[in-house]
Design a protein that fits this description.
Order of helices and strands: HEHHEEHHEHHEEHH
Distance between the termini: 52 Å
Subcellular location: Cell outer membrane
GO molecular function: efflux transmembrane transporter activity; porin activity
Largest sheet: 4 strands, antiparallel
Number of strands: 6
Organism: Flavobacterium psychrotolerans
Strand order of the largest sheet: 2-3-5-6
Family: Belongs to the outer membrane factor (OMF) (TC 1.B.17) family.
Structural class: alpha+beta
Keywords: Cell outer membrane, Membrane, Transmembrane, Transmembrane beta strand, Transport
Strand content: 15-25%
Number of helices: 9
CATH class: Mainly Alpha
Radius of gyration: 40 Å
CATH topology: Outer membrane efflux proteins (OEP)
Length: about 425
Amino acid sequence: MNSKNLFKSLVIFFCCILKIDAQEILTLEDAVKTALENNYEIKIASNNLLIDKTNVTSGNAGMLPKLAATIVDNNGIQNLSQTRADGTVTKLDNAKSSTLNYGVGLDWTVFDGFKMFAKMDQLKQLQKLGEAQLKLTLITKISDVNATYFDLVQQQQQLVALDSTIVISNQRLALAQNRFTIGKASKLEVLNAQVDLNTDKVALLRQKEMFANTKILLNQVLARDAKIDFKVADTIEVDTKLLLPEISALAEKQNPQLETQILNKDVAELQLKQIKAARYPTVKVNTGYNFSESHSGLGFTTQSSARGLNYGFSATLNLFDGFAQNRNEKISQIQIDNSKIAIYQQNLALHSQLAISYQTYLTNLELIDLEEKNEAIAKQNLNITLDKFRIGTITTLEFRTAQLNYVNAKVRYSNAKFQAKLSEIALKELAGNLNF
């Protein structure tokens, strides 16, 4: 490589460094924090939980009295004719009449077969159900952020690997040109080196495209401008100490999907209590204070008024409703049985997913060790091959094979760590243990 080309390479290198330093450094913690603050699905789930919390009131459960103010004003104009018992006839055209009633009334259900208490407990369980659904949304979104973030990290590592292979391909092309100049190699060797270099450049461009698209995807997950550029970490740290019994124990306590099924059963049982409350009498008390005033243009009484307090109670008991009560109770009991089946089904699916994910996790941990050794061997082999190529003791095909083996080994090692990280994320997601 001559001094002019070296100078150009140094300029490009330092420009790239300055560009990278100008980018925002996005850590995983910052990405998760941004997602929790901005993500639309999380905002919707939070608002739904706020609705559930707002519904947990004594009044919504039917425990409080209802107080209402009423006013009724009726007016009329009529042509009236009255015939009395003695035969006297009285007539009046355009007679005006008016009636005004207003007052305050209170109704209070003091006993409904304990339905109001079951309703209150059900509202509290619905709030817990909303919390579990919000937790599921949070964990799912955090899992998406983790997976996309570490996908970027491993793609960035692949870019580094492809950059290194282009450096090697450039060295190979320069050596081939030098050998051709002094007559130790044919033009075919130079052409082969140029073709392989162009192939590596195409692979690098494709990888850069994928890297840029994944950045846009992460920005979408974070609910921010897709054009925001940033830099991610350069390493993937895998938790190698996960144990299946501990993960399973956490999952049985914290898995939001299993928790949702358990809460659905509780809600169904409280619904049955409310239905059974119809077998008891319903007792209500009422009271009020009313004013009334009326005017009539014709008649024995042309004006009257009244005001005063009224009070009383009422009690109702369902004696026969066409067996609707029995039917409703049977349906509610079937719904409880279905919710129990759903719990068993979810529990079985959860433990199956845990077992599969944990086996994948163990396999990926082994692959990390194996691919790390393969990368070291491939690097050593490439160094030896490069030295031999410089002195012309091996063919270009052997050199290219060693070069590709090294690049593939680096890519497989990076991908092994990424897959292991995905397995770790999946296990923690099932355990409901992804850090917020």
